[in-house]
Amino acid sequence: MLVTCTKARSKENGLTVYCGIDWAENHHDVALVDDDGQLLAKRRIGDDAAGYRLLMDLLAEYGDTAEDPVPVAIETSHGLLVAALRTGTRPVYAINPLAAARYRDRHGVSRKKSDPGDALVLAHILRTDMAMHRPLPADSDQAKAVTVLARAQQDAAWSRQQISNQVRSLLREYYPAALAAFQHKQGGLTRPDARTVLAMAPTPTRAARLSLAQLRSALKRSGRQRGLDAEATRLRDILRTPWAHQPPAVEDAFGLQLSALLRQLEAACQAGDDLAEAVEAAFREHPDAEIYLSFPGLGVQLAARILAEIGDDSGRFTDARGLKAYAGSAPITRASGKKSFVGRRFVKNNRLVSAGFLWTFSSLRASPGADAHYRRRREAGDWHAGAQRNLLNRFLGQLYHCLQNRLHFDEHRAFTSPRTSPLTAAA
């Protein structure tokens, strides 16, 4: 039901209109207010195409145009509703739910809460404090596609590692020979040869019966092409070494559990590989790809993750400090009276900082300047994580400068004296 106040006014009368939307799974509550805080209209719409059309009609009724759209505040940054609102030049503000909860207390001390009331609170946030909040970045569709794929690939990698840890914990219970055979190798239990051999012999009793020919065939099926005989001999010797055993019935039960986990691990590995190929294809088509790949330690997958979280909206951050704060690499100061504390940030983009730590770690071998910077921080007393965070802070400043000026990374300019390096000055 549409409710319009008797003093309802719109942009046509010279007043700015603000919109707040409290979203839910099946419906959304909408509230419109003017400069004076007067409620102009409120309505509940469905989460479907008809509901979106009703919302657009309601905004148009109160002066929404392509040249001067009504700003919208909502507590999410993704979904079909946000995609529909972001068509054109409309500014959409994703308000953190914790911040919205603090604003709610400004409008009433009874601690009451309702969906229409939350929509009204969101509209008032834009009316009073729009300058304190950032609209969603105006990223290109190409960058948004990279974001979807890179985050999906990152989730698949995390899922793969989680299932691998479950397999490792299970093997410790009854199958130590498998850990001795594969855990020390790069990739560990996620290696194709490890998955193939364990699927063929999920119990140590069955593994001890495998012949050289069977092991060689399994290695070949996993994709291995070199050193088949030597690897098959090594595996046979390890699997036939005397180990402690569970009772036969218990061992068989563990084998069934392992087979189920291996099917999940196989699916996670396949999903990760497929998404990695899609990420590479989408990332290399982006115009910023060469700039990212010019930085030491950044391969296609890590660079795509960085781009996915930063985006390609050049006006998203006013300076490099904004990007560093967003990534959580810049320190934060808490001061009160004579007490002052400088520490790391806990509110940050966790995906970006995770990719950033992998970036700085891999850069230590690729960049002499990065390695020297890291060692200086360690000698100054920083822990490993602190030195990495400091190096990431510097890299992000250089990345911001390169993206803004369309430059590639230059090792000699990036790690010289601050007085002679514009890249360092930007950091």
List the helices and strands and how they pair.
Elements: E1 3-4, E2 18-23, E3 27-33, E4 39-46, H1 49-61, E5 72-74, H2 80-85, E6 92-94, H3 97-104, H4 115-129, H5 141-174, H6 176-182, H7 192-200, H8 204-208, H9 212-221, H10 228-239, H11 248-284, H12 289-293, H13 300-310, H14 320-327, E7 332-336, E8 339-343, H15 350-366, H16 368-379, H17 384-405, H18 411-414, H19 422-426
Parallel strand pairs: 2-5, 5-6
Antiparallel strand pairs: 1-4, 2-3, 3-4, 7-8
Structure description:
- This protein has 427 residues and is an alpha/beta fold.
- The protein folds into three domains: 3-136, 2-Layer Sandwich (Nucleotidyltransferase, domain 5), CATH 3.30.420.10; 144-282; 290-426, no CATH class.
- The protein has 19 helices and eight strands.
- It has helices at residues 49-61, 80-85, 97-104, 115-129, 141-174, 176-182, 192-200, 204-208, 212-221, 228-239, 248-284, 289-293, 300-310, 320-327, 350-366, 368-379, 384-405, 411-414, 422-426; strands at residues 3-4, 18-23, 27-33, 39-46, 72-74, 92-94, 332-336, 339-343.
- The strands form two sheets. Strands 1-4-3-2-5-6 form a six-stranded mixed sheet. Strands 7-8 form a two-stranded antiparallel sheet.
- The longest helix is centred in the middle third of the chain and has 37 residues, at 248-284.
- It is globular.
